[in-house]
Amino acid sequence: MTKYLSRALILALLVFSAPPLMADSISEIIAKAKRAVVEIVTRDATGTPKDLGTGFFISPDGLVVTNLHVIEGADSMEAVGNNAATFLFERVVTQPVGVDLVVLKFDAADVPFLELGESSTAVEGQKVIVIGHPTSLAGTVSEGIIAAFRENRSIIQITAPISPESSGSPVMDETGRSLVLRRL
Q1: What share of the chain in percent tops pLDDT 70?
Q2: pTM of this prediction?
Q3: What was the pLDDT predicted at 179?
Q4: Alpha helices, DSSP H only, in 18-144?
Q5: By the 8 A CB rule, do 100 and 67 touch?
Q6: Within 10 A of 176 (CB to CB), how many other CB atoms are there?
Q7: Domain locations in the chain as residue ranges
Q8: Which of the residues 23, 60, 147, 179 could staple to 157 if both were Cys, CB 3.0 to 4.6 A apart?
Q9: Domain covering 32-106 assigned CATH 2.40.10.10 in the classification
Q10: DSSP tag of 123
């Protein structure tokens, strides 16, 4: 009996002393994610601001994902972080054919970034979080659920409210990973 009691005690100590397996809370995820979300400011040939949108870092060296329509027709652009840091545009890295998506490179180093998740395991009814920059209101958060998958899962319909100029915002799951439809 002592042998079993010792094993039970050791097991209890291991279970209760192990770090919790729980993910961050939603508020912790939002606090971390906001640091990776940027406002995309596009300019015309005269340097006048043209359009605003949202994007988010996906690497510490300045790769940003946004919607292609956010930057179309721009002569120049920059990304502005929540802390007012400005990142200068370097180049378009990739623009997948047939998708309103683009990966841009900005002059940045050691910036907070979001991990890309997979939408292939996402399900209808799953909670999603969106962080955008509508009308220069940096870091606006909304939440909702995945309402449906459309066109053979190539489109995710969500109920989270999206305001103008939030195009390019990350749509994150409850682990803080941005849902992507295809690998970039």
Answers
A1: 85
A2: 0.83
A3: 87
A4: 26-34, 68-71
A5: yes
A6: 20
A7: 32-106, 115-172
A8: 147
A9: yes
A10: -
Active-site residue set: 69, 100, 167
pLDDT in tens, 59-78: 999 999 999 999 999 999 99
* CATH classification for the domain delimited by 115-172, as one of 3.30.1380.10, 3.40.50.620, 1.10.10.10, 2.40.10.10: 2.40.10.10
**How many Å apart are CA 153 and CA 91, to the nearest integer?**
30
SS3 per-residue string spanning 75-105: CEEEEEECCCCEEEEEEEEECCCCCCCEEEE
User: What percent of the chain is helix, strand and coil (3-state, nearest 5)?
Assistant: 15, 35, 45
The beta-strand segments (E) located in 9-165 are 37-43, 49-57, 63-66, 76-81, 86-94, 102-106, 127-132, 140-150, 155-158
Backbone φ, ψ for residue 50 (5° rounding): -105, -60
- In angstroms, how far is CA 13 from the centroid of its own chain? 38
Give me Rg for the CA atoms of the chain.
20
